[in-house]
Structures are given as C-alpha cells and as structure tokens.
Amino acid sequence: MTSDIETTVWRALDGFVIEIPSWGFADTGTRFGKFHQPAAAVTLEEKFHDAGVVHRLTAASPTMAIHVQWDLSPQQRPQDIAALAKSHGVGVGSINPNVFQDPCYKFGSFCSPDADARRSAREHLAECITLGAQCGSQCLSIWLGDGTNYPGQDHLRRRKRDLQAALRDIHQQLDREWPAAALLVEYKPFEPAFYHTDIADWGMSYVFCKAAGEKARVLIDTGHHLPGCNIEHIVAFLLDEGMLGGFHFNDRKYADDDLTIGSIDPYAVFRIFDQIAQFEFETGARAPIAYTIDQSHNLKPKLEATVQTVCEAQKLFAKAHCVDRKALAAAQANTDVVGAETVLRAAYETDVTPLLHQWRRNRGVPLDPLAELRSSGLIERLGRPREAARERRHGSP
After folding, report:
1. How confident is the model at residue 395 (pLDDT cuts 50, 70, 90)?
2. Residue 102 in contact with residue 136, Cβ under 8 Å?
3. Domain 4-394 sits in CATH 3.30.710.10
4. What per-residue confidence (pLDDT) applies to 90?
5. How far apart are CA 368 and CA 363, in angstroms?
6. How far, in Å, CA of 112 to CA of 123, rounded?
7. pTM for this one?
8. Burial class (CB in 10 A: 0-12, 13-18, 19+), 244
9. Exposed, middle or buried, 108 (CB in 10 Å: 0-12/13-18/19+)?
10. Which residues are CB-contacts of 202 (< 8 A; sequence separation ≥ 6)?
C-alpha cells in the first residue's frame, strides 16, 4: 500500500518543473577569460537539442529560457523559434532581455542619465515582448545591471522614478500584447555596480513590482544576496504577500558564484523548498512559482552539470515534502525548539532515492539520469561535430 508520504512526494514531483537556461549550454568563463568545451552549444538549435536531452532524461525541464541578445538574430521569426524548440521536445521558456552589455549602457539602461540609453532599453524590451507573445513563452524576466560606482555620481531618486515609469510602461505593453505573461523583476546587491545598485534587494524589487502592475512579481536569484542573508525568510514573506514570482537557482560560497545547486549548501536549498511546501500545505494550492536554473558551468561538462542540477533540485524538493507538518506545527505551538528542528532535520536526512526511482520509473525515464548520461558517450559524440562546425565558422578557439 502506498503511504501518505509517498503520495505527497510523487504529487509534488508531478508539479515541479525547473527551466533550463540557454546560457548554461554555451561557453562561458570569468572576467579573466572564456573557457572552451568541445561539446558546448553555439547555435540556438544546439541549445534546444541539449535542453531536450535534459528533459528526456529527467522529465522535469520542459522549457528553455532564452537570453535574447545572446541567442537570437534579427532574422529569426518567433514562430520558427517555437517550431525549433518543439522539434527537440521542449518549449520556449522565459524571455530574458539584455540591457547591460551594449556600450550605450555604460551608465545604466532605464536609470541612465542618457535619454538615448533609456530609449534604447525601452525599444529592446518592446521587441522582447513581441517575441515572447508570438513564440509561446509565459514570462518576461528582467535583470538590470544599473547602478553607480561612486558617491555623487548620479541622482538616486531620479533613477528610481525613471525605472518605475519604465516598468509601468512595460507592464502596459504586456497587458496589450502578451496578457498571459508574468513580469519577473530580479534584484542584486552589487555587481557590476559597486556603490549602489538600482534594484539592490527584494524590498526594492517588491516596490518596483507594485508600481508596475498586477502581473509583476519578485524574482529571487539565490546567489544575489549578501553573506548570511536568510533567503527562506524572504521566500516566506513574499509568499505571504503573494509577490513571489520565481527563482534563479544556483549555489555560492562567496557572492554570485553561479555554482550548481547544492554543491556548497544543500540544506539552504532544502530550507527554501520547505517554506514553499509549508505554504502549499496550509493553503491547499500550488504556489505559482517559475523555477529556473541560472548557473555558469566553466569546469563541469555543461550537459552533466545541468542534469546534476535538475536531479539535485528534485531530490531536495522531495525532501521538503517529507516534513511531518502536523508534528512540526505541534512542536512550534509548544515552543519545543529542539523538537521542531528535529522534525525538519529528519525530513532533510530522509533517503528519497526509492521515491525518486519509482517516480522516474512511472515516467519511463532513467532511474539515475546523470549516470545514464555519463555512460552514454553523448557528450563526446556531440563534441566532435560541434568542434568541427565551430572551426568552420570561426577558426580554432
């Protein structure tokens, strides 16, 4: 007979999907250099191919996020992009604009003192909205590098007001052209700006979302916090306010390290998922959260790192649904601190491997997706033609 905990975990896994980022398959590096992998994806088709591989192995990643300026050319039609994704068994995920890379954004985008830079950013967002509406995406995800490096460099309140006006304008266009889409607004305490960042924390993102309109929600990047920050508290607060829109998941040791989920502190990820599971247990409704991976795989093979991340996310999500909620509530009501922590730790220490294996067996995917990928030789097979194609296009790296 199936136990209650098994049923709870399987139902939770049925509803858990985590989006793959296109940039997770491409060559990346650090500010000191770019590191090449032979099997790294270059073209949009190669990225959708790799996303399809991950989804076929895990049954948990049906969409791929697109970074517009990194992935697309002006010649690509939205309907062709959607068809390309479908041909590889996935869909087009969140649309990610780029208003931080071009020279005109040296002093910011929507917050820049330069009206031409602000205009360029708005035109790019307009194009992104049209793209998203036509290719089947459900989300516009905004991260800004806007900020300043020196005291007195710019007028901080003017920058805030210009950004609020821009987000209201973007929201109005969403209402007209892409009414089903969510608008997710990310925050970051520093980098590339080091004196002040225009959306520096979750509270600022919350205020900007409220000013933008009802589609706007806060996006939490787990690497975008100062050391010691209690991220699960932020999660609980935003859930209670109905303002948590999504996650960019990664792990870190120091700052925005973009390491694979759980590689440094898996208990931290579990605690985030625990707050979401607690919310869903108490409300009886699934939290409408867009889960996305946002990592930079410089050392690990990119497909392996992505599959490893998806599997780790599934495992920690399953553990969070093993918490005995009634026992936890009783311990909390009795101010039994040790008892409450023990309930939480017991769930975290639960071996959910048999539950994951049965869930995967029911869906016809490998019981151990990472082992399946590593033994398949796929990465080596992809590397040879991709390396040859790269050399034909650009010469040797």
Report:
1. low
2. no
3. no
4. 98
5. 13
6. 15
7. 0.96
8. buried
9. buried
10. 187, 218, 220, 234, 237, 238
